[in-house]
Structure formats: structure tokens, C-alpha cells
Amino acid sequence: MKKLNSYIVGGHRFYLCMPEESKLWTGVDNYTPFLESEAEVESLVDGTLSDNVFCLDVNIESAGNELVENSAMLAEFDDDTAFISVMSGSDGESIFGIALNRAMREQGGILATGKDSSVCKLYAGVCNGGNHGLFVLNNALMLLYALFTAGRNTLLIHASVAVKEGKGYVFLGKSGTGKSTHSRLWLNNIEGTRLLNDDNPVVRIEDNGEVMVYGSPWSGKTPCYRNERAALGAVVRLSQAPHNAIRRLSGVQAYAALAPSASSMKWNRVMADGLHKTLSGIIQSVGIYHLECLPDADAAYLCYNTVK
Prior knowledge:
The protein is an alpha+beta fold. It has helices spanning 41-46, 65-69, 130-149, 179-189, 251-258, 269-285, 297-307; strands at residues 2-9, 12-19, 35-39, 54-59, 72-78, 83-88, 94-99, 109-112, 119-123, 154-156, 160-164, 167-172, 193-197, 202-205, 211-214, 229-240, 245-249, 287-293.
């Protein structure tokens, strides 16, 4: 028997379908705050699922080797977050290999997006369970979320978010620049501050033009899975320095500060166009800043007093 759950993240609904006996179900507590309901599996089969951005159907029997054998390799990405291979299927569908790193690629999963459908398949026959299996599942869901919401004024970004007085302040930067550290400095020194997400929040331009930042099920090493939202107060790109200094960015500088942190497949025309539209809308509505800083309380005070 299969189990089908419905989740809402950043105002967008998606479905996760897996056999009830899959060990992966025991490790998806991070999605519980976003759980809407358990749907009827027959809805997936007869195509009556509606009002969703995608559905991920997980196959725990097959490793998806036949898909890879009949696909053309387009690119490979190996960084400090994941190993992703991108392929084009024989019918033109997009296929992704997902693993923690290159050495574990044979123990990873194969994700296939539907060419003309939002129902996608994850072949997890060699990673059904354990931390690596959960890593593959989480990355598959994040990838699909970024892909299918790109044209809906939505960005999944790599950032940490602190909330103060109903506004969310997003801290960006390269790995190791201190995004989480800066959030903690706000929490420890600025009264009334709390953490919304510490790794992958969602930023969305609502239908009324307001820019909001949402919590998500993806928060890196910090277990912070809040199904909440706040008006986006400011975006701050951090860089380490022997001093504390902050300045507001505009135009191309603001765009360049925000764009690298947005999850996207920039070679995909739909995603690239959606990314550009959403980035442009955000920088026209919200202050974008660059903070050169030390990891100290003065940096938090300077930042808060400037962007509030």
C-alpha cells in the first residue's frame, strides 16, 4: 500500500507518495508542521490531484538504472552541499542523479520529472532508509520545489532568517561567511528576535505585491521547521572583515547580491525567466544591503539599526 501526504510550503501545495513500509517515512518529521492532509492514493493514479505544484512518487524497489542508461549526460555539480548529475531522458524529460558526494553516487537516487506532467518519480531502490536516503529525498523535494515554483514569483534561497517585530531579515553569503552566526547574534543581543529558518527559507511575492519570507522543512543542521511567514524587512549579504560596516545596494549590485543565493537551474529557460522576474520584483520592493562584519554583537546592532 502507498501513502500520500499533502504539504503546503510558502503557500504552494505539493504531494509526497511512498509505500507505507518505506523507512523514509520515519525520518520526515521536518515536514510535519507543513502537513495538510493524507490524500487518497487513487487520486494520484487517476490524475485528479489538483491545485498543486508537483507530486513526488517514490519507488523503493528500483534504482532507476534503466533511465540513466538511456539518457544523455548534460552536466555534473559537486560542491559542499550535494552531488547532482543532470541528464536528458530519451523522451526529453529531465533526469537528476542525487547523492551526498561523488563517492556515493552509486548509492544515490534518480529523480525523473514528467515531461508533460507535474507527477515526478524518485527511484530510491539503493537508498531507502538511513541518513543518505533522507538526504536524497530532501534534496529531491527541494529541487522540485525550486523548479515548479520558479514561475510563481517564488524563490527558495540559501540563507538564514531572523524575525523581529513581524518582519523577516534574510542573511545571505557564501558558505562559511557566518549567516547562522549572525542570526544567533541577533537572537542573543536584540530582544524579541527569533529564528524562522537557518538554511533554506522561501521568499514569495504575493498577489497583492507584498514580499513575504516563509519557513520551510529545509533548515540545514539547525532543526527549525516553522510553518510561519513574515513580511520581508531586508536582505543582507554578509562578508567577513576586520571591521563592521554596512551600505545599501541598488540596481545591478543589489541583483548580484541576491541572485547567487537563489536555488535555480539557470540553463532552464522557464526557471531562468522566473528567477529574473522574482529577483527584480524583490529588489524594487525591499532594501538590499552589504554588511562587512566581525562575529560580534556590534555587528548585529549596526545591522539591525540600519535595516529596521
